[in-house]
Amino acid sequence: MTPITEVEGKRLALTNLDKVLHPATGFTKGEVLHYYATVADVLLPHLRDRPVSFLRYPDGPDGQVFFTKNVPPGTPAWVTTAEVPRTEGPARMVLVQDLASLMWAANLVTEFHTPQWTIGTPGIADRIVFDLDPGEPATVVECCEVALWLRERLAADGIEAYAKSSGSKGLHLLAAVAPTPSADVSAYAKELAVEAEKALPRLVVHRMTRSLRRGKVFVDWSQNAGRKTTATPYTLRARAEPTVSAPVTWEEVEGCGSAAELTFRATDIAPRVRDFGDLLAPLFEPERAGQLP
Question: Quick check: pTM over 0.90?
């Protein structure tokens, strides 16, 4: 019999709670749902008002993994949806606005990916993001070196950056910006990626060509395009272990000596939130938003 639970007055059917979704540790779907319930207070502000792209892995990372952008079939009427403009025509997407919607979405087994703009102003970014992706044998250690350079470069333009692990191999840098067309943010991010490659030629590449990336850090500036999304802070990733895209301190970035030091699993996050709160909370403070030059 499918368990039914009530969340904020909404009835939810939760399925396959004993199913192992992260095989390296035996982490089950029930534990996934518990994780999201535990971190909801810090996760929901990063989801709210941003149309969600779901990267679903209902049978774990070794099963079928697929993106869902449109509202999934069977979505309850009480889940908020909104029409989102696209080049191929408008589409209706999910907004995860509250705990009940978060738990419904988590029951689909998904990574959460969101754009750098909110639904009220589609294509007008309020954040800038850099996805630092290491090419083997480089690791997140090299990403940290690049992140520190980018932090100082952004600061020179009056933009305050924050960092989080990608939950995979790399590191993400985020900053709040005054409302700016996504195309302009993307162009600015590309300029900085090119500058980083010139300043750190043995370490950085700004082009996506895989043959150029071995042993270097690809500074992916393109995720600032209006149509692109990035893994949301605190989302679990579809990996053998239940790794999380977790906010990190600059002290942790500066002191990173191995990839293990910036690898965080679901069980690590609640203690970190107790110790640090949401390290990305300044992204929500309008007075901290930088103005692009």
Answer: yes
